[in-house]
Design brief:
The structure is a homohexamer of 288-residue chains. The first copy, chain A, is 44% helix and 19% strand. Chain A has 11 helices and 12 strands.
Chain lengths: 288, 288, 288, 288, 288, 288
């Protein structure tokens, strides 16, 4: 998920432009032209920082000097200074909220992801944790990148990525087996094929049809254990990746992660993250 | 916040286009051309629905027939059908996640807003509840509209709205009074002027300088009560609107709402909302 | 109305790109690659200059060096040099007309605005002069900013600004009073509420319903004086801002400005401004 | 200058979107959802109407029914109804100002153009009247089309159109002759070559070098007569088109048009047009 | 690669808008308003048609009625009618070249792809034929979709698709093995990992490191045979997909396709396709 | 066709952004942050280079240092280094394919154009060679510019350029003569008028009606010779430019070029060019 800063800049300026509208009327009314300021972006909470690259890219694009004191993905403490900014006061004030909104959301997502992974690490589990496409509308790039920085798996980046056959596809096609066979026949060799199943029996069908990944959708941990047992019995365990999905949260993740699946996917990381509290303080400035 | 559907369509297609990328490879591989489907958008949780207009606009723009069974802002129950959709199966599948992401986030925000207002209504309080500009990056329109549908106050829609003089502006200008005076002198008569204060004494200064709204930033409920008492004593209470802001959450909102302020603003409504669980089920379809 | 230059640049490049089309064929045919030129942007008429920030932003974005010798809002004389430009001759020639069109229109608007204000200033009147949303299509930003630089009030910057209930709204709602009450109930506390009235009686109705500004639409100066008298009699004068609007021009503005209203709005400032004559002369250059 | 309506729609929606911003707050607060209205677009002044196609295209794109009662380029009288509109009241109100701004500006330009041509027609002159690229910034399409509807010549539509060698090009290249020769050598055969001259002698030089059109820039009518005489003497008259340009206005156009030039170009048609007064009246409506 | 028509429409209108510029001046000058026409899109050469969906989508978006007589991917004969179009003559003429350019290029690519596959089919080979990212700049969507319609494999749709480690990546990382290991460690489980190798020895290294696909870059057919033999000997044949790439053309493809690789990729399909000759004939029309 | 680099940059970033999608996953997984690289863009074939300005503009816009060793339009040899690039390795890798696709296509077109012109030059012919609007969809700018760099005539740059009356226009209008007369009456004096004829008799009709250029469409060389003879007999030869068009290729161009026409237009230059083989080699780099 590397985007050259100039490409990233386009998305960032679009976001800022929406907030500016026809212009910042407060800055225009109260801040004289030509004043320089210094700002410090400061964490108010502990967590994993994300969005530093985005903040730097936007600030520098606006002609401000930005110096990051932390790296994306790094753990931060309350009161820690994340970036120092210098330059035109009007521009800094007009960009303040956009910068903070990006940092707060991305850091919130990265922190939640890391917290889940820490639980697994403590139990010495190697199960991966993935997000879903349940992001804030239009924020796929930012939300997925934050998951990656938190140590999670981004899963599909959009619909042209990997084949993922879900319940509604199967409802239309008729069966897991038929859908997977069509996918194997029609899709590019460059794509993996994943299929969502709702019954234990469908797993073997999917394996035989050539799926690369099988998503066990809304399976209870007990049902997953049964599935794993069945696959082992048949000698199919390890032939496909197994993903547990549906209703998995911070509270129950360990029950799923210990079943023998390769991957658990957690929707709430991106659809309901808590923003990390981060603010901008203009600490020193040439007075007007 | 009324946007003609054709204008709204542009934002919605932009969001969908990001998710489509170079094309939905799953649909392309497994769903034949020319299949029609029926879908039901179903709530999995109780709450206040929002985003119905957005969903309908996008679905109809894509050539699907969409029939809303609920109105934006209405309370909904688990298993309630929100929209019925008919039309091309490939298009419906490709738009599924975008539609659900919009509905889930907007309904989550509307539900949270309504919950806060219900608390106040039960206590017969007329205090208004507002959101802030702490939205998901670039989602100001959707987040603010959801707050409105939940019954909240949208506060500023972007930076060309109302004058709002905050801590960093004051740090640069030197004093609350000076900043408000500059605003009254330079700003359009069409704008209200709000100023954020951190000390009780600044309130009177702000009132005298002509502020329309005073934001009591990070004042404890006790400090707000003192401020109100002081204003009443001076005969200034009622001359300006008072807004309590900073650290207000669902847990402590009643302490603030009962102090005599006109408005409490709550950042978490838009920066950390929980998405409402909503899904699409394709219930009936001409089989392939 | 402060827009960070990088945000402004997007609008400016859009305008230039339209003029360039597939490329400047004259420059391509007659000006060799790699020639540097110097240019002077020169006023041909006296007036108030506006658009200097826009010109500088565009020129520098294009890689030309631009040095402004005047400030936006400053009075200029015929033959006065406004900017000096240095850099690639082909680029300068391709941008010439776009730069001049922006400066000429914005300066024309600023000059007209200032002229009106000078009339009022000479009569020691403090009445404000505002423009309307009757701008050239799509040029709201540039036209409004030019009014501001001329000393005028920008009034609404777009439709998400202040509530302004006009004749057609009232025709649909039924009465001034009902419309204002709905506005006060439904609108954000951050918005002022203005209402357009056509009868003297409606003014008191509007005041009682809680309007912040009352627009006296197409009232003759005599009718405005009657209205002011009535409001004074009732003790309502000063409780709302009064705006005179409709048919006000440079010729009759003093008759309106002396009636006791706070604001007169003049459509022709932005819908029919005369461009200020400004040209680019390339005075010195390395010959081909 | 025919643009398929769907292409035109993109420009029009861009203009409307700027005015809408985050949404029309007045309509949202005071006009209920689901109200239909009827509107009449009415001329307040006589003139030549232009922008009807643009208004219809935008209105229909927004889902409103628009019926034009006049054709673009037609003469209209005060109180004449130009279009009748039916449909959603909220949408009609939100689009009102954008529609009127387009019609007013375009009709103002068409009217001015027609007035100039009428003067010439009365004198039985066949001299053409052209506009320049001195339009409102970014409005090249609308301004040029209005000139065309008024009966004028659009001249260049942007910089990839015809070669036009102006003073600054010649200053860099060294001489009229050299510049025209380079143009003839390097430019596509599909392009005409026009050159601006400031001296009588340069005209013959331009003709010899192969120019298709010679622009007599800031020549007095007397100087043009001398030039025509000279060209006739040399047998060059009629070999190139002659264009008079610079300082030509409604007041002096006849002096230029009678000199024997093929074309007079008038900057003020597009840089300083007076808008035609046009308004929208909602005459009948289902009351709320 | 299914894109909902409304999303596709955006790309298509962008392409048309570039060609229209400020308007079609020929249509404007010679074709009266309000004339209807019928058109037939006719093949001048045999081949495989592609771009029919794109043509229909654009034509219908423009308000023309389009009836396709062939399906994308179908074989067509000279003189065969591909689409019939009815509607506004001016619009049809303005869109003619854009429609034909899309059909000609896409059909040219589909035809070339099919021809290659026919060769393989005649030899009863199941080797797949893929294109590369060597498309016309910015035409990834159209070029890849045409390959798919011709029966080829689209390979990566852009850089966020599958991991593909190429020569320059390896040059920077140091070795095939190291690069593949990093990819397996850092990449999402949803991605396949392909690596380009230039030496026989690197193949086993890649297999061991966990690559899903190995690209044998610029291997001669003989060298590929050696590689296959070696893999078989080691028991690694079939564990990874093998792709032959580099210098493969219509002339030598059989030598590569018979070596035992799973996939041959051919750059010239998309970087140098011959357009299929297709034209629009307006066969019947209401005369002016 | 000179476009200021900043305007060109917009098109180039659009193309790159499509290829990047949500981010380069390969670079992200295997190339560490902060590594610098050096790259050489190297020709693998002889030809005429084009696209160097585009490559430099894009590379520098991305923050890479680009040094061109050749000029656009220059002849190059196999193994010749075209550009040297220095800077961030991740950015260089992500932009590699886009840069090469632009250079390969543009150089392929320029080379084909130059080859045709060389044939004519060797025969001492001054006939011009033009391309048509049959470009890759949406690549009008790049394709036409490459033709110009190869020495060809760009012909129309889009539909607002020159009047060109083609077969379908005439089918609708009724006759060549009528169409040309309408064009002369309605079109701007700044436009040339070209008309396509299919019969010898139409040529004189076109000349009389005032056409500037007559396109002899699908005339055999023999038929062109007859036409030229007829025009000479009538004294019309030289009064209009003659263009031969339709089915002209590298194989038969000399037969057309020697007939006495001014211009031959060749569709395949832009609709079916062979890309020139150009690659990027990262030759030296700080190892990871």
């Amino acid at each position: 998920m590397f985007s050259p800063p100039k490409i990233l800049e386009r998305k960032l300026l679009e976001i800022l432009a929406e907030d500016i509208g026809q212009g910042d009327v407060t800055v225009s009314a109260v801040i004289p032209v030509g004043i320089d300021a210094r700002g410090s972006v400061i964490a108010k909470q502990a967590g994993v920082v994300a969005g530093v690259e985005e903040a730097e890219t936007l600030l520098e694009s606006l002609g401000l000097e930005a110096k990051a004191l932390v790296k994306d993905g790094q753990e931060i403490k309350p009161k820690q200074i994340l970036l120092k900014i210098t330059g035109d006061a009007r521009t800094m004030l007009a960009a303040e909220r956009t910068i903070l909104n990006i940092l707060s959301r991305m850091s919130g997502i990265a922190t939640t992801t890391r917290d889940l992974l820490e639980k697994l690490r403590k139990a010495k589990l190697k199960t991966k944790v993935a997000c879903t496409r349940k992001t804030a509308p239009g924020l796929m790039y930012f939300d997925k990148k934050a998951v990656l920085l938190g140590g999670g798996d981004t899963h599909r980046l959009h619909l042209d990525d990997m084949i993922l056959i879900k319940d509604n596809h199967i409802a239309l096609v008729g069966s897991v087996q038929k859908a997977v066979k069509m996918a194997k026949k029609n899709a590019s060799l460059s794509k993996k094929v994943e299929v969502e199943v709702t019954k234990v029996e469908d797993v073997s069908e999917a394996v035989e049809a050539g799926a690369d990944i099988v998503m066990l959708d809304n399976f209870s941990p007990r049902k997953i254990l049964e599935t794993v047992a069945l696959l082992k019995k048949r000698g199919d365990y390890g032939k496909v990746l197994l993903e547990a999905s549906g209703g998995i949260t911070a509270r129950n993740i360990m029950e799923y992660a210990t079943t023998g699946v390769d991957l658990v996917s957690v929707g709430e990381i991106t659809h309901s993250p808590r923003a990390l509290d981060i603010s901008l303080e203009m600490t020193s400035v040439k007075k007007v």
